[in-house]
Amino acid sequence: MAAVRIRPPRDARCRAFREHLLDRVDKRHFLATMAIELDEWLKSGPEAPDLEEAPEGWHKVFRSFTICGEGECIKTLFTIYSPGKPRRGSIDLDRAVVARIICNERPAEPMVLHRQVCGSPSASSGQDLRQTQGKLRSLPA
User: Fold this and answer.
1) How many C-beta atoms surround the C-beta of residue 131 within 10 A?
2) CA 19, CA 49: separation in Å to the nearest integer?
3) 91-92 and 73-79 strand pairing
4) Which of 58, 78, 100, 140 would bridge with 84, disulfide CB 3.0–4.6 Å?
5) What angle do CA 59, 61, 67 make, to 5 degrees?
């Protein structure tokens, strides 16, 4: 996976989304405890797939909120007070990290994640896909 480091909204590269995020913080009741949880996660140096690899973006689910982004920038957020769903086809960062751990390396492409999880060279086998689905279902939500 071509990983990029996720940058906080105050970073110059993500300033275009800053006003939008501040508006979402106000309208969606983003509480101080949520901000602390997000800040701690950002300090851990999280990575996400780049835009070429994940054109539909990525998302990260926390206990009481979800953030969605593209490339290195956080674009929007949903809270328990104003729920929403990540874009269809976006990559769940938690599942991507677990898949890397299962593979003991970074998957080459999220779209062929099941090949990496199962260690199969071919994506065409229905058995490989069923194995992957079983492994991914057993991952924590």
Assistant:
1) 16
2) 24
3) unpaired
4) 78
5) 50
Same domain, 73 and 96: no
Q: Mind listing the pLDDT tens digit of every residue in the chain (141 residues)?
A: 568 888 888 888 888 888 888 888 888 888 889 999 999 999 999 999 988 888 999 999 999 999 999 999 999 999 988 889 999 999 999 887 666 655 655 544 544 444 444 444 444 444 555 555 555 555 554
- The label of the residue with tokens 């070429």 reads 52
The verdict on 9 and 57 lying in the same domain is yes
In a 3-state reduction of DSSP, which class is residue 61? strand
pTM surpassing 0.70?
A: no
**What is the C-alpha to C-alpha distance for residues 44 and 64, in angstroms, rounded to an integer?**
19
- In sequence order, the 6+-apart residues with CB closer than 8 A to the CB of 43 are none
Paired strand residues for 70: 73
Could you tell me if 62 and 37 lie in one domain? yes
> Domain count of the chain?
2
Q: Which backbone phi and psi does 114 adopt, to 5 degrees?
A: -65, -30
Full domain range(s) for residue 73:
3-79
